Structure formats: C-alpha cells, structure tokens
C-alpha cells in the first residue's frame, strides 16, 4: 500500500490522540501529537513568567524566544508511544496537568506561535507515512492529506474521559473544573482568528460519544485501508 498522510482533527479530549497513536503503531507510521507542541510552548511561557497578573501574555518576549524552544518526540518502548521533550527535558506529564491546560488556548491563538509550529509539523510530514492529530491539520498543515478525520463527542463525555485519565495517572482532578475547561477551550479554539477549529470540507466526521476504543480502532483502520488503496 502506498504511504499516505493522515490528518486527525477535533475537539479537546475527544479521544483522537488514542485513536491516532494506535493506528500509527498498527500500520508503522510516525505519530505526531501537535497539541503536545502547543502545550510545550505554554509550559515554557509559564516557566519564564510570561503570563501577566491580568492573564495577558508577554508576546514580545515570547516571540523573541521562539527560536529557543525546541520540541522533540522520542519513542518510549515501555508505553509504546512517543514522549514529548522540551529543550531535551521530558515534559510528558507536566504538559498534561491542569495548569498548562488552563493556559494553552491563548498561546495556541498567537499567530507567530502557530506559524512556527505549522512549519515544524510540515517538515515532520515531508516524507508522508505520518498520522498527525490536532485542530488544523486537515485545513492548514496538510490540506492535501489523503485521509482526513474530524472527531467529535459531547463536552460531558470528553470531560469524563479526561477526569478518568488524570485520576488514573494519580493527578488531582475535579470533574466540574474539567468540564468548564473543556467548554472554554472549545469556544476559544473554534472562535480564534488564525486557523480556528473547523472540519475540512473533505474530512470524514466521526462522533465517538457512544463508541468503544476497539470500535473506533476498527473504524479508523478501515478508513485507512480505503484511503491507502486509492
Ligand atoms: O489536543 P490538546 O488538548 O492537547 O491541545 C492543546 C491545545 O492546543 C488546545 O487548546 C488546542 C490547541 N491546538 C491547536 O490550536 N492546534 C493544534 N493543531 C493542536 C492543538
């Protein structure tokens, strides 16, 4: 089968990373979690005190330092998935916490941040054979991707999934706070000026509110087979 580009977009915590990672592993493709890249930039901004007390961002300082932010992924043989590194430091756990989650949307809305990330993402996918998940992969990063999926699920289902995920990792979690965070991020992600979250015209939509992980896996694998044969 020919090597293709697979773009998986959708709302936060809708299970798209799980399905994207599992598919990449099954078919031997590279997997890139672009949300982890925006989260890493956010962690960098938090650590360098770039959030002012009124919640605004010191954009000038962040823009100047963008070239000092190196984000890489390394395969973790224990989990069978890639871990995220920020300037050589393993940050996989820290970027998933509530503090980064609460600050990431305004960072992801900054045009100079998006430009830098999109450029790196396009480099990563130069050779095809890639599964990339995010918000703008099918619309902006790879508008010519052979397979585009747009995943949705209700905010309550997504909040419950993130709650369970954090608890399982032994992290602090409150369902109501998570639901509020999910709804806020949906709003900012789909109303921002640059690359708002939207379904590409040629993307296939999947509402997975009532699907098991196994059902999703099988559905996605079928879509891949169809797209790669063409
Ligand atoms: O998928 P996630 O929840 O880890 O994404 C974190 C944030 O990054 C979320 O607010 C949306 C943003 N994001 C984006 O704007 N574009 C992407 N391609 C991926 C994520």
Automatic annotation (TrEMBL):
Residues engaged in binding ATP: 10-18
EC class (word): transferase
Xref: Gene3D superfamilies: P-loop containing nucleotide triphosphate hydrolases (3.40.50.300)
Annotated catalysed reactions: dCMP + ATP = dCDP + ADP; CMP + ATP = CDP + ADP
Pfam families found in the cross-reference section: Cytidylate_kin (PF02224)
Spans through the membrane: none
Family matches, as InterPro entries: Cytidylate_kin, Cytidylate_kinase_dom, P-loop_NTPase
GO molecular function, one term: kinase activity
Residue ranges of every copy of the Cytidylate kinase domain listed in the record: 6-216
EC number, as in UniProt: 2.7.4.25
Source superkingdom: Bacteria
Principal location: cytoplasm
Subcellular location: Cytoplasm
Keywords: ATP-binding, Cytoplasm, Kinase, Nucleotide-binding, Transferase
Family designation: Belongs to the cytidylate kinase family. Type 1 subfamily.
Name of this chain's protein: Cytidylate kinase
Source species of the chain: Prevotella illustrans
């Amino acid at each position: 089968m020919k090597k293709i580009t697979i773009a998986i977009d959708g709302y936060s915590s809708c299970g798209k990373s799980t399905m994207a990672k599992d598919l990449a592993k099954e078919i031997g493709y590279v997997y890139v979690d672009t949300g982890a890249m925006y989260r890493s930039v956010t962690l960098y901004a938090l650590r360098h005190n770039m959030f002012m007390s009124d919640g605004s961002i010191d954009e000038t300082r962040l823009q100047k330092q963008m070239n000092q932010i190196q984000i890489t992924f390394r395969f973790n043989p224990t989990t069978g998935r890639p871990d995220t590194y920020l300037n050589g430091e393993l940050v996989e756990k820290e970027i998933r916490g509530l503090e980064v989650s609460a600050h990431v949307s305004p960072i992801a809305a900054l045009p100079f941040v998006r430009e830098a990330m999109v450029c790196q993402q396009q480099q990563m996918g130069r050779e095809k054979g890639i599964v990339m998940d995010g918000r703008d992969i099918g619309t902006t990063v790879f508008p010519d991707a052979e397979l585009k999926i747009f995943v949705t699920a209700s905010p309550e289902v997504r909040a419950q999934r993130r709650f369970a995920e954090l608890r399982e990792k032994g992290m602090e979690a409150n369902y109501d706070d998570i639901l509020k965070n999910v709804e806020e991020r949906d709003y900012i992600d789909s109303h921002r000026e640059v690359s708002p979250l939207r379904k590409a015209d040629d993307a296939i939509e999947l509402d997975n509110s009532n699907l098991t992980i196994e059902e999703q896996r099988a559905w996605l694998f079928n879509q891949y087979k169809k797209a790669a044969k063409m």
